[in-house]
Amino acid sequence: MADGVKLVCATLMAIVCGWAGGSHAADAPGVTPTEIKIGGVFPFSGPASSIGLVGRGTLAYVQSINDNGGIGGRKINYIALDDAYSPPKAVEHVRRLVESDQVAFMFGQLGTAGNSAVAKYLAIKNVPSLAIVTGSSKFANVKDYPLITTGLVSYDTEGKVYAKYLSRTLPAAKVAILFQNDDLGKDYVNAFRTFLGAEFDKRVVTAAYDVTEPTVDSQVVTLKSSGAEALFVAGTPKFAAQAIRKAAEIGWKPTILINFPSSSVAGTLKPAGLENSIGVIVGTPNKDPNDPKWQQDPGVRAYRAFFEKYLAAADITNTSYLTGYQQGMLLEQILNQCGNDLSRANILKQAKSLRDFALPTTLPGIRINTSSANNQVWTQMQLQRWNGTSWDQFGEILDAGLE
Q: What is the dihedral angle through the alpha carbons of 234, 267, 363, 283, rounded to the nearest 10 degrees?
């Protein structure tokens, strides 16, 4: 009888310990009482290295969290690997992160092609992949991608915003679209096609480029010959910069719009030429930390202080770092909401339970709301126009629900 009592007590103790230490139970890989291990993959090198700086910003913010004691007594071990914007390398790295490093979850992986290449594998392994840095519309489908949340306004939503703007301001004009020949670029083209309907073939001319091409000069020359009065560039910073510069060189002066991933002053506008970039339009959810009008803003001041401490050798005009900083704040919020339950199920639940969460570096009125039915972190943006030295916001805050 005594042995039976001991057995029952031992069993109860094991259950109690399992409840109290749920963060390092069998359903919480990558978690110990002192650490949580998280994986990320970024193009730190290769043709999209300028947006790989998002990863540098996230790493810096994680370091600031750890310097302040971590979260719930745990330091974050954020393992960020370089895939050079190559899907096969992304697959190789994600397998390593899951099988060898045994991360709790993936966070902030950048690139549409890379995320597409690893999504099925992560689903099979039941590993959440949160705030992925792609706006590919397919990832916004919660049914098809139940373990994913997205960290950019969807390219579909963004593309429709630009199509709507051009339809209002240049209702009869021909529109040229230079797009990256992958899911990223095609999503934007399809957004214009959906918005314009039967008018698309009459009003839009397109030209594609591959990320392996050295320049897009020939495509820009071809698009100019179409007589288009507007040019939308749906790609990454290197090629957006080339397109803006080439248009200026050949004397083409269309209304130019670029997509949010290419909106960095340092990554796109400076290489294109700040004067050449005057009038360029883009949508954004963010304040520009380099704009004098935000210099006394508490959120921007905090960001600049952070930048001086953790990214002192970097160029603050490159707002890819700001995106990474905001990703770090988002990660911090999700982990704080998790409390001591760091099971994969609860991490995913909290990532889809953000309620009116406002980051201090976003424009007034921008809020983050996620749910079981909405896995998109960002659904709002505002248009802005480059005036030669800074961005001028105009119009209202636009939402994914736009008609």
A: -20
Q: What is d(CA 203, CA 120) in angstroms, rounded to the nearest whole number?
A: 38
Cβ contact 47:238 at 8 Å: yes
Give yes or no for a contact between 285 and 382, defined as CB atoms under 8 angstroms apart: yes
N-terminal to C-terminal alpha carbon distance within the chain: 73
Rounded distance, CA 68 to CA 62, Å? Answer: 10
- The three-state secondary structure class of 209 is strand
Within 208-297, residue ranges assigned H as helices are: 217-224, 237-249, 270-272
Q: How many Å apart are CA 160 and CA 167, to the nearest integer? A: 10
d(CA 394, CA 146): 36
CB 371 within 8 A of CB 103: no
**In the block, residue with structure tokens 């970097």:** 314
Dump pLDDT digits (tens) for 325-361: 999 999 999 999 999 999 999 999 999 999 999 999 9
Q: Which DSSP symbol is given to 164?
A: H
Domains and CATH numbers, the chain: 11-153+299-381 (3.40.50.2300), 157-284 (3.40.50.2300)
Q: How many residues does the chain have?
A: 403
pLDDT range class, residue 21, cuts 50, 70, 90: very low
Amino acid letter at 147?
A: L
Residues 129-135, mean pLDDT to the nearest whole number: 96
Give the distance from CA 266 to its chain's centroid. 17
Q: Which two tokens stand for residue 126?
A: 């039941």
DSSP-based helix, strand, coil % in the chain, nearest 5: 45, 20, 35
Q: How many CB atoms lie within 10 A of CB 389?
A: 11
Find the largest Cα–Cα distance for the chain: 95
> d(Cα 155, Cα 376) in Å, to the nearest integer?
12
Cβ contact 274:252 at 8 Å: no
Q: List the structure tokens of 306.
A: 């952070």
Nearest CA-CA partner of 377 in 398, 401, 396, 351: 351
Spatial contact of 76 and 38, defined as CB atoms under 8 Å apart: yes
Q: How far apart are CA 249 and CA 303, in angstroms?
A: 36
Which residues, other chains included, contact 11 with Cβ-Cβ below 8 Å and sequence gap of 6+? none
